[in-house]
Design a protein that fits this description.
The chain is mainly alpha-helical. The chain contains six helices and three strands. It is globular, with a radius of gyration of 19 Å.
Length: 142
């Protein structure tokens, strides 16, 4: 300790702790979700389109917190699997409109129970009150 100040410990810093929590959540996602080929970002995009309906690729990126390059790759992979369709916007040719295909809608509905299990397993070490508090705090940070 220097000058009475506690030492800087990287393992006690928010970025490090969030990264570790994210790694844990990602591992639980991969082992629990009932589609091992979907990444967390692909799942988020599929579910946003399923829940919110057709939208531009740009809007999806904002809703799912993805940069344009990431959302483009995510959508390409979902489209290759036949889960999402991409068509030019009729009113603005610069925009692309994304929609969930019938296969994508079926998969999204099928995955909801295992997605809920992912959240439950991720939050399991916390009490219900702590779970709510953590989610509220993370929402405020985001």
């Amino acid at each position: 300790m220097t000058g009475g100040k506690p030492p800087y410990r990287v393992e006690q810093q928010i970025g490090h702790l969030l990264r570790r929590a994210h790694q844990r959540a990602s591992a639980i996602f991969q082992e629990t979700l009932d589609d091992k080929a979907l990444t967390p970002m692909q799942f988020a995009a599929l579910m946003r389109l399923h829940d919110d309906g057709s939208m531009s690729q740009n809007h999806l990126g904002r809703l799912a917190a993805m940069d344009p390059a990431t959302v483009q790759g995510v959508i390409r992979r979902l489209q290759e699997r036949g889960l999402v369709s991409r068509v030019p916007d009729q009113t603005d040719r610069r925009r692309t409109v994304l929609s969930v295909t019938p296969e994508g809608a079926t998969l999204a509905k099928f995955l909801v129970p295992s997605a809920k299990e992912v959240s439950a397993k991720t939050l399991a070490p916390l009490t219900p009150a702590e779970q709510k508090q953590l989610l509220d705090l993370l929402e405020r940070l985001g």
